[in-house]
Design goal:
- This protein has one domain.
- Strands 6, 7, 10, 11, 16, 18, 19, 20 and 21 form a 9-stranded mixed beta sheet that branches. Strands 8-3-22-25 form a 4-stranded mixed beta sheet, with no helix packed on it.
- It is built from 2 helices and 25 strands.
- By secondary structure, it is mainly β.
Length: 346
């Protein structure tokens, strides 16, 4: 692929591309167990129907996969000379410090980027100016409304088509294939209205609360109900998730966590609409700052020819289950966060 760039003493003008690079996101994420036809094997009369040990046991209520389509709205991309992350105190967060940061991309309305396996996507609509220098940190600010469009087909442990129950406005849908439909869920399972959106409760046994539609007939190109589902990242710290009481222990930040796959550490801060003020509750937290502290600074010189951001989404869809009346329900396809790795070539 050709890259257009102009080199001078002060800056480099070039195209920056987002590409998908896939590797395991977290140590705890477990891929779904499949048969030779690539169908997910489930024990379909339980609330723990999937296996995390290659079929020896079916005792888990979720498994992770690579989504067919992942959409994120990006507001800003920055490179920073000093640390923009400001640690909070207890459950109170602090505003990040972007004073040393150079803004590579900004869009006040946000730009939707659709990430699909092995496909490069332009983030910028035109060339971008990047000043030369050493950058130990980066910041990507995105909407905390993460979207996935995905479907899966299931077979039971007896090698028969599984019969899974899914969403229906007045009664359950059911069948061997389940797909995302338009709706909103939350990362913590919180089901009260948020950001002006009606939130699905994802309660097994209630047809109109489920996040997936199931049926025996499905065509990805013609099924009108096959749409993006949206998950709101309403928590970013485990103190909220543990007891699902974010209203009283809402913590809008998580400190640096080392990760070899991004060649550095990452931290996160939930922000308000202005993208500068830390969130104080889940309803005014609408964006998230993804901050990377590189093991080695990114060095931008006159010799740089390509610059890429690699988005990891390999295990970014969590297929979640629940049971009622001894029938397995397709609760939702949860949208897990992504990771980003930068590459530069001279």
């Amino acid at each position: 692929m050709a890259f257009n760039f102009i080199i001078n003493r002060w800056n480099i003008v070039f195209l920056i591309l987002i590409t998908c690079m896939f590797y395991q996101s977290t140590a705890s994420a477990e891929s779904c167990h499949r048969n030779a036809d690539n169908k997910i094997i489930v024990a379909d009369t339980t609330d723990t129907p999937v296996s995390h040990d290659s079929g020896s046991n079916y005792d888990q209520d979720s498994c992770n996969e690579e989504p067919l389509f992942y959409k994120v709205k990006i507001f800003e991309v920055m490179m920073c000379a000093s640390d923009p992350f400001v640690a909070g105190s207890g459950d109170t967060g602090s505003d990040p410090d972007f004073t040393s940061c150079t803004n590579l991309f900004t869009n006040s309305s946000g730009k939707d980027i659709e990430i699909t396996p092995n496909v490069k996507t332009d983030l910028f609509d035109s060339s971008v100016t990047l000043p030369l220098g050493n950058f130990p940190y980066s910041v990507i600010i995105v909407s905390n409304h993460l979207k996935i469009k995905h479907y899966e087909t299931y077979i039971d442990t007896g090698d028969n088509d599984a019969d899974i129950r899914g969403y229906g406005a007045s009664d359950f849908s059911s069948g061997k294939t389940c797909w995302t439909h338009e709706g909103f869920t939350t990362y913590t399972g919180y089901s009260t209205s948020m950001h002006g959106k009606t939130i699905l409760s994802t309660s097994a046994g209630t047809s109109n609360s489920l996040g997936l539609i199931c049926g025996d007939t499905f065509d990805a190109d013609s099924t009108s109900t096959y749409e993006y589902t949206t998950e709101i990242l309403d928590s970013i710290d485990a103190t909220c998730d543990a007891s699902n009481d974010c209203d009283t222990t809402f913590r809008p930040y998580v400190g640096y966590q080392a990760n070899s796959e991004i060649d550095g550490s990452y931290a996160g801060v939930l922000l308000q609409d202005d993208r500068r003020t830390v969130g104080s509750n889940r309803d005014n937290s609408t964006t998230v700052a993804y901050i990377i502290n590189f093991n080695n600074p990114l060095i931008i010189t006159e010799d740089v020819k390509t610059f890429e951001m690699l988005f990891d989404t390999k295990s970014s869809v969590s297929i979640d289950w629940g049971a009622a009346a001894s029938v397995t329900n397709a609760v939702k396809m949860g949208v897990d966060p992504f990771k980003v790795k930068y590459t530069i070539s001279n």
